[in-house]
Amino acid sequence: MVLDHEFPPDVRVENEALALVKAGHEVHLACYTRKDRPRRDLFRGIIIHRTPLSTLLYKASVAALTFPLYFSFWERFLDKVVRDNDIEALHIHDLPLAQVGKILKYRYDLKLVVDLHENWPALLKVSAHTRSVAGRLLSPGFLWERYERRVLRHADSIIVVVEEAMERLTAEGHDRERIAVVSNTLNRDSFQLPDKAPDPDHYTLYYAGGITYHRGLHTVIEALSNVCDRIPGIRFRIAGSGKYLEPLKDLVSKKNLGSLVEFTGHLTLEEVAGYLAQADAALIPHLKTGHTDSTIPHKLFQYMYANKPVIASDCLPLERIITETQSGVIFRSGSAGDLADKLVALYEKRATVLPARKWVEEKYNWEADAGTLVSLYGRLHATAADMNDQLNG
After folding, report:
1. Are 159 and 114 in contact (CB under 8 A)?
2. Nearest-CA neighbor of 342 among 301, 309, 308?
3. Is-contact 248 211, C-beta < 8 A?
4. Distance (Å, rounded) from C-alpha 235 to C-alpha 346?
5. Could you read off the pLDDT of 11-63 as tens digits, one per residue?
6. What is the separation of C-alpha 283 from the centre of its chain, rounded to a whole number of angstroms?
7. What does the DSSP assignment read for 28-85?
8. Above 70 in pLDDT, residue 138?
9. How far apart are CA 230 and CA 193, in angstroms?
10. CA of residue 93 relative to chain centroid, distance
């Protein structure tokens, strides 16, 4: 596995690696470190290979398609890992390093799996660092769109997180048979809900995750201005961090909502579960974009497992799953007025919302997705074995 981040932590990467370890595979994970972590490490059976990454190279990653210094750095590092450890398959997490995976695939006759956590070209269109003049010059969106179409054709398997992402790639000409959905579902073994209940003196809304503009949290703050006199004791807890934190705090101050909004900062998974248990309802207010219409957040399944009513924007995967499970209400993305109306309807119990834990226990759980991943590697192994038999026969 190849990850251009620190590891740990990364919930999705850890879940996938451990599922393969449990199935009998030897899993090596190559990543960078900017924290002076050990070059070689062992984490829960995963063999970790780290390489130090300088600030210059870290910043160069943004311009990887226009100045391929970043790709060259990874190619040298991964070439050694592959040669020294008799690697048979490369599992590239997210789109950027897929090109390096392609090079090594043909150099060493490896199987190549590209695991698309995100719709990367669409994500860049809404990311702050690529919307600036310099960002558009160094990392133009059209280059990433071409790159994705070109490099994915060399993958033996493509992993996506939701059915809508499969439909997107199929529409662009990729073979549906090579695409597998391994979603961001909940691993119940690592998520324990404490025995806590909501505060009866408050109506607590909760959000956990990154704090960037496209998460739509500003829409929630605007909506709070419209409902604070209609929902007694309402408050909004925001768990997480990100580049939009200070602008969001400024908006809270401007709206005089400081007494209703609490910023908890970054939380451990245990703390996330504790705050969730004390919530009356949980929010996913993401702005509707090409990115959010083809991905699914892990927190949706945490909310469902906790039997918390979900209030989400009308991004395609969110609307599909919440409508199917009747686990919450949907509002128009970016509409503070519609969100305010849905909050009041939920508070006054005029909206039909059913407990959703059974859906996580029976369908939307990591055990099912781990099975899909393990089966994918079983097919790759069988294909490789057949080819070897033909060559040696």
Report:
1. yes
2. 309
3. yes
4. 15
5. 999 999 999 999 999 999 999 999 999 999 999 999 999 999 999 888 888 88
6. 16
7. EEEEEESS---SEEEETTEEEEEEE--HHHHHHGGGTTTSTHHHHHHHHHHHHHHHHH
8. no
9. 30
10. 11
In this structure, are strands 281-284 and 203-208 parallel, antiparallel, or unpaired? parallel
In this structure, are residues 309 and 328 in contact, taking their beta carbons and an 8 Å threshold?
yes
The secondary element (H helix, E strand) that includes residue 135 is: helix 133-138
For residue 379, pLDDT over 60 is answered with yes
| Domains of the chain and CATH, by start | 2-185+366-392 (3.40.50.2000), 189-361 (3.40.50.2000)
Tokens linked to 196: 């806590």
245: Cβ contacts below 8 Å, ≥ 6 apart: 211, 263
Q: Taking the CA atoms of the chain, what radius of gyration do you get in angstroms?
A: 22
Whether the per-residue pLDDT at 323 is higher than 70: the answer is: yes
- For the stretch 140-186, pLDDT in tens is 678 999 999 999 999 999 999 999 999 999 999 999 999 999 999 99
Asked if the model's pLDDT at residue 374 lies above 70, the reply is yes
Burial letters for 127-151: b for 16+ Cβ neighbours within 10 Å, e otherwise? beebeeeebeebbebeebbebbeeb
Mean pLDDT throughout 275-280?
Answer: 97
Q: How far apart are CA 393 and CA 389, in angstroms?
A: 6
SS3 360: helix
CA separation for the pair 31, 9 (Å, rounded): 12
Q: Residue 327: CB partners within 8 Å, gap ≥ 6?
A: 303, 304, 309, 310, 321, 353, 354, 356, 359
Q: What is the pTM of this model?
A: 0.92
Q: Whole-angstrom distance between the N-terminal and C-terminal Cα of the chain?
A: 31
Count of beta carbons in the 10 Å neighbourhood of residue 331: 23
Nearest to 26 by CA among 50, 48, 3: 48
Counting every residue written for the chain, the total comes to 393
Q: What percent of the chain has pLDDT over 90?
A: 85
> Residue 71: what pLDDT?
94
